[in-house]
């Protein structure tokens, strides 16, 4: 088996900013370390972009938008996206290795990521040639022709978190390319490598210099992008707190904003559920990606007649999960992304214990010789959690399940909705009438019935309440990158 040192030996990792088609250092000359969360070792140095670099990138995007990129027809944009899809497919192992090294995603879980990454690019390629306005019959006096056209919103600033670096980069950049926008991506400082490599592939696919720019950096870079008066739209995925600051920053030039923010998703298991399906799905609704998922079904509501049986089976399933080196194919849970995130999750576990929740499984950092230098946390299940506990109210973003018993349908709907979030939710029942009734009453952007965390690029995704606004995937996604211009022509 290859070690992390073996994988890195002789490999050149991306470390410079991508601005106007060139790999360049930060204006300040500063760099920051990117860390392998499985070993705690430094992978390399990455240029630390700030406001000056954002200025350079936005200016490059504006020049490209008003220059060669503006002459690309829809079919030209489609060809570029299809070439990019082919390149991602050809280089996927290298791209995902960067995700493994940068944020610890297990190599054994990559097949669905490959399918999704390539499918996203080909889907947006298909939309590039289908964007259109409409001809409208009007009630105006005389002969007046009225119609609409779709135009790119302009320069897009995109800001991503670290929990799925490659896929999230595609999710921002592909619709921008399909609609004819130019983009500046600020990836998370914890995981900048795959976004930088993907930006280079955009150039190889034929995207003109300046259309796609990638500027790693810290909070100052993200703030500068959100505030920038020559940025026409911000597309943000991340915490609700940062999303709120982006809304405030957008007021300067009233830029368009779309936000996919935090979640504390309810996963509701009724007494008639198929437990053979519901138990493993409820576990992996949280433990996939080591719990670093905004959709995590971390509030697990189980109807009282099956509560004890369900938790017994859930605990057994959790104990059998393999936590370890993400380069080992049998690993199911890797590390969390950073020492800071590990400390944060462990603090929540301590809060759960202190508040009186019953710890069934896990509950600590793995610190044996095989894991001591990495940021590994045991998958953890708390039982008998009260709705008012911090672990039941706040997004943990780690491998922690909070199990809560319930008695009636009305009760669980009230409790499931009693949160400031509204991103996703699950319903487990064999009664289709129950599923339809409950689905309509839950205040969430996505509802899964007898499944969890299934995402399709053609299906819109987004939140209610403080989980954000706007939609990603589907036809609604590209509309986020388009203006509608109305045209009225007197033909008398």
Automatic annotation (TrEMBL):
Q: Which GO terms describe its molecular function?
A: oxidoreductase activity, acting on the aldehyde or oxo group of donors, NAD or NADP as acceptor
Domain named Aldehyde dehydrogenase: residues: 28-487
Active-site residues, as the UniProt record annotates them: 260
- Protein name, entry field: Aldehyde dehydrogenase (Acceptor)
Task: Give the species this sequence originates from.
Answer: Panacagrimonas perspica
For this UniProt record, the keywords arranged alphabetically read as follows: Oxidoreductase
Cite the SUPFAM superfamilies for this sequence: ALDH-like
Q: Which InterPro entries match?
A: Ald_DH/histidinol_DH, Ald_DH_C, Ald_DH_CS_CYS, Ald_DH_CS_GLU, Ald_DH_N, Aldehyde_DH_dom
**Family named by the database record:** Belongs to the aldehyde dehydrogenase family.
Question: What is the top-level taxon of the source organism?
Answer: Bacteria
Statement: the UniProt record of this protein carries the keyword Secreted: no
* Pfam families in the cross-refs: Aldedh (PF00171)
Q: Specify the signal sequence span.
A: none
Please indicate if the UniProt record lists Oxidoreductase as a keyword: yes
